[in-house]
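tokens incoming
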């Protein structure tokens, strides 16, 4: 029998517990305690009638009877390794269901294509990850979808309200928020964005889904569904995969919207492979331990950076002053600090490059959330697609470095950071 979502007494299990057993029945796989890798493109039906039933449900040709579920058909539609991971992710996010993708960008693009149609307007915060920016700036407009943005942060909900009034509420069909934002780690209030989405939806009589990219803090330290998000998107390449050895994405959310996302995934074929699904499910088992330990080290490094004479500014969740608006949002919607730090060194790009070139432990590489520490230069690397003036307006300046803190010994990381900074 597979593990239930709660104890027999009704007491719900925590996501850490569910990550070790939920959604998998060993007795269906020769008693194997760990799920095997289901490396198959297709699944055999017991009878033609069963095949017909499975397709009817998978293609929405009829409603499921009480307790009836769709069976396994074909690995573009469903596969046990993806399903186990999806059920555990949905439990973690307190969402109805999940969908795994070949990359974070596949998750984002498939979701936006599922939600939007030509003539629709999407409102979003900025900055966002470079790939998301490119999709919104260059690809969606070529399909007749208009995308407008406001700066992320404490003022984003009221700025978005003003923007909505300016562009007209009638065509708005979605709000997209990356919080905290990449690379400057700025928080946007999810509940306030949801209030705006509901108002717009009530006025134009259409769904206005609130989509939240939760890559930086989730699912451990931020659960957007609890604050009103309809769809929660991740680059699972980062903390969820956690070992910098795969590219993947995942979306969780409300059932009705997820059905549209799954329909689009089935037809575009943007799902991940069984083996990556297996790796993700395996990584989820240690997610809580990894993220908590990484966050603990990151907090110490952020404090070191804050006190350093060559560092002009440090952004780290929860390290804002009490009473600060960013602090208030963080306190309301986050339960931890995460392990990403943005800091600006004195001396612009040249100084930032000297620092980056002298790390001995932290690797000079893009990406984040892996077991090893990584450092990069957003302006010339992950965000180099965006015009420099645009980035500077958003606070992404030439001296800015993004650091993802890994699982190395803290004292080694402290020494590494100190010696690299001495070259600034
Ligand atoms: C916040 C955020 N969202 C989405 C993505 C895209 O994910 P992937 O590289 O897995 O496609 C990234 C990648 O860095 C990211 O940082």
């Amino acid at each position: 029998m597979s593990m239930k979502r709660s104890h027999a007494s009704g007491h719900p299990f925590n996501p850490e517990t569910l990550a070790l057993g939920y959604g998998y029945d060993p007795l269906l796989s020769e008693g194997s305690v760990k799920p095997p890798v289901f490396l198959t493109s297709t699944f055999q039906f017991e009878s033609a009638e069963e095949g017909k039933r499975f397709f009817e449900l998978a293609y929405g040709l009829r409603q499921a009877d009480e307790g009836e579920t769709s069976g396994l058909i074909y690995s573009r539609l469903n596969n046990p390794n993806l399903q186990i991971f999806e059920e555990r992710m949905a439990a973690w996010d307190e969402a109805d269901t999940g969908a795994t993708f070949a990359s974070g960008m596949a998750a984002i693009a498939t979701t936006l294509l599922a939600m939007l149609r030509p003539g629709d307007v999407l409102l979003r915060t900025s900055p966002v990850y470079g790939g998301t920016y490119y999709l919104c700036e260059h690809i969606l407009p070529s399909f007749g979808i208009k995308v407008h943005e406001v700066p992320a942060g404490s003022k984003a909900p009221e700025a978005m309200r003003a923007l909505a009034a300016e562009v007209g509420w009638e065509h708005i069909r979605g709000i997209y928020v990356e919080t905290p934002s990449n690379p400057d780690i700025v928080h946007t209030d999810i509940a306030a964005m949801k209030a705006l989405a509901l108002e717009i939806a009530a006025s134009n009589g259409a769904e206005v889904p609130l989509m939240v990219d939760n890559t930086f803090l989730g699912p451990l330290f931020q659960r957007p569904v609890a604050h009103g998000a309809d769809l929660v998107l991740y680059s699972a390449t980062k903390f969820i995969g956690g070992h910098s050895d795969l590219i993947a994405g995942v979306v969780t959310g409300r059932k009705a919207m997820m059905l549209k996302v799954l329909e689009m995934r089935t037809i575009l074929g943007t799902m991940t492979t069984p083996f990556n699904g297996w790796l993700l499910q395996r990584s989820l088992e240690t997610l809580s331990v990894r993220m908590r330990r990484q966050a603990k080290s990151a907090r110490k490094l952020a404090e070191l950076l804050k006190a350093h004479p060559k560092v002009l500014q440090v952004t780290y969740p929860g390290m804002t002053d009490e009473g600060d608006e960013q602090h208030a949002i963080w306190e309301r919607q986050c339960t931890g600090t995460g392990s990403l730090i943005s800091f600006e060194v004195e001396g612009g790009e040249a100084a930032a490059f000297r620092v980056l070139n002298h790390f001995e432990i932290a690797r000079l590489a893009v990406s984040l959330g892996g077991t090893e520490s990584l450092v990069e230069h957003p302006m010339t690397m992950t965000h180099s697609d965006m015009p420099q003036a645009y980035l500077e307006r958003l606070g992404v300046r030439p001296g800015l470095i993004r650091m993802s803190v890994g699982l190395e010994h803290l004292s080694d990381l402290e020494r590494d950071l100190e010696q690299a900074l001495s070259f600034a």
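note: The CA atoms of residues 297 and 410 lie 6 Å apart.
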